[in-house]
Write a structure and sequence with these properties.
Blueprint lengths: L2 H36 L21 E4 L5 H9 L4 E4 L11 E4 L1 H7 L6 E5 L5 E5 L6 H9 L9
Parallel strand pairs: 1-2, 2-3
Antiparallel strand pairs: 1-4, 4-5
């Protein structure tokens, strides 16, 4: 077999393998779309396994960092919530209860702030959203059945 023939055979074999890989990826995307389509609210994950403790029980909690412009905007959008941060309260100029709790912050610090959480009466996070737009906060609070960040149920 000549070098040119071997090159052509290897090239076509590589192309076939690439197309088979692309077909497998497209199949996975189709299966993922079918899974998401079954839930009209989008993808639903398991309830978060985060226990913030009694200090945050029954409240809406915003975990935020003052260096994040979206965090500041979301904090100003809320009227009655707890702002969880790793910074001193003096950094924040918002009408919220600012709590500096490094232990609680460590539980959510791996997530990209802002992190909006609905905490149950036992101190465990029941619902969690990472808003990407300020306007999304109102929709989330309506969905959770709270007004302005005050937990009603």
């Amino acid at each position: 077999m000549s070098a040119l023939t071997a090159f052509l055979v290897i090239t076509w074999a590589a192309i076939v393998v690439l197309f088979l890989g692309l077909a497998a990826v497209l199949r996975e995307v189709r299966l993922l779309r079918a899974t998401v389509a079954r839930d009209p609210g989008g993808f639903t994950a398991a309830e978060p396994d985060i226990d913030l403790g009694e200090r945050f029980a029954g409240k809406v909690v915003l975990a935020a960092d003052s260096g994040c412009p979206l965090c500041v905007a979301v904090a100003r959008r809320l009227t009655d919530a707890v702002l969880l941060t790793h910074e001193p309260a003096s950094v924040w100029d918002v009408p919220l209860d600012v709590v500096t709790d490094r232990a609680a912050w460590r539980l959510v610090s791996h997530l990209a702030p802002p992190v909006l959480m609905l905490v149950g009466s036992d101190g465990r996070v029941r619902r969690m959203v990472l808003p990407v737009r300020v306007e999304q906060v109102d929709d989330v609070l309506d969905d959770w059945g709270v007004r302005g960040g005050a937990h009603t149920g």
